[in-house]
Amino acid sequence: MAIKPKGKTENVTCFFWFSSDLGSMPVIVQGIVKEMQSYASENAYAYIKCPSENQTEIKMPPLYVALANEHAKSPNRNVQLLVENREMCLHSIFENKTAFSGNKNNTGSDKHTYNKRIVEFTVCIPPMFKYDNAAQLVEKLEMVRLLGAGRVVLYNNSIAHNVHSVLHFYTQQWAAGNETLEVVVHPWNLPPIHVSYFGQIAAMDDCLYRYGWLSQYMVFDDLDEIMVPLRHDNWSVLIAEREKLYPDHVAFMFRSSVMNKDHSSPAHGFQADAFRYRSSVLAFTQRDNFIYEPNNKGKLIINPRKVETMEVHHVYEGNGPTDIIPVNQGILYHYRWPLLPCHFEVKDSRVASKFGKRLLARLKSVWSRLKSISMGGELPRPGFLRVSSEIFQRKHGEALEGLHNTINAANDIVLAGCGKTYAEAYLSIWNLSDA
């Protein structure tokens, strides 16, 4: 993946080294540069492919690669890059050789190591920028664990000390063999140029190419989003069923709905723990009364062997169509400040009802070992509540009359204050009281 000046055409040459002697003569091929989305930035995302000139059936992957533009006769020795996950290619080559020779009995250690690294679901998270919400991070990791993730890949542009401590905890637990969820963190130090969303699309495709062959499926969403199967126990059962119906599809889209965080609405039985662990899943059960259309804010689970490149909300280049998950089977729950602050809401406690007890057990376990770490983020605010759409639509006049000069912070949603800030919410409350 690359970031380049938008619209500028430049020839790129690829150099391959097949031995550890970087002074040896490389194999040289012409690269292919394909520009992708640029949005409003003067720079664009692109990917660079280095096709092999060797068209024989069995190909060995290089040990090192490098690139040079049309102004350079040879690559800078400082940017000769070691090929990562090379064992994936070697495993594929070995399988081809075995099939060709008729040898079916090999149980070599390389194959065993390769198979151990494959997970069913790898979750790819966009770059973290000035990120300090350790409570949200822990909840995200534990929720995707429950949903079936075997690996989570994150990109660190800038994080606070508490978040660093959480990530260190998970990575160390994995290294020690005490953890079933692999958490991988890559530095994401982009050059000082303008690029949209801190290079989010580049990070997505980096994750796709680094871990696609080590994953049966890949999940692309954000730290404040959760793709929740509503009729199935986990992603695995849902995707298996959808693939039987649509075997030619390459991706599965969850439509989005916002769980509004301008007011708390704790799930029944979880009120105290929702605040104790700053849990969005347990603290917020009111969402917008609509679900966004598939082409707006949806997120994807993909089959990485059928996808070339990704965009934030759709497959940019793939080998088939995308399946839209029916909203009675799955929704992308987006826990954030409202996009439409005064819009009607509905009660939706299905996530907490289905996963709440197991999630809470995991949160208790993790935070019991991170007692000195600040959770960060913000506590759910119980004092900023809104009239539910049901009350508002059925008994509008009665609701307003009942709110006159009253601020009710009970668990039932009865307060009509809303706005982009808490001050605006209070102002809205008093305007209603005076109506």
UniProtKB/TrEMBL annotation:
- GO MF entry, a single one: glycosyltransferase activity
- Annotated organism of origin: Elysia marginata
Q: What is this protein called?
A: Glycosyltransferase family 92 protein
Q: Name one GO cellular component term.
A: cytoplasm
State whether keyword Disulfide bond applies. no
Q: Which branch of life, at top level?
A: Eukaryota
Describe the family membership recorded for this protein in Swiss-Prot or TrEMBL: Belongs to the glycosyltransferase 92 family.
Keywords for the protein's UniProt record, in alphabetical order: Glycosyltransferase, Membrane, Transferase, Transmembrane, Transmembrane helix
The places in or outside the cell where this protein is found are: Membrane
Q: Tell me its EC number(s), please.
A: 2.4.1.-
Q: Provide the top EC class.
A: transferase
Topology versus the membrane:
Single-pass membrane protein
Q: Which PANTHER family match?
A: GLYCOSYLTRANSFERASE FAMILY 92 PROTEIN (PTHR21461:SF69)
Q: According to its UniProt record, where is this protein mainly located?
A: membrane
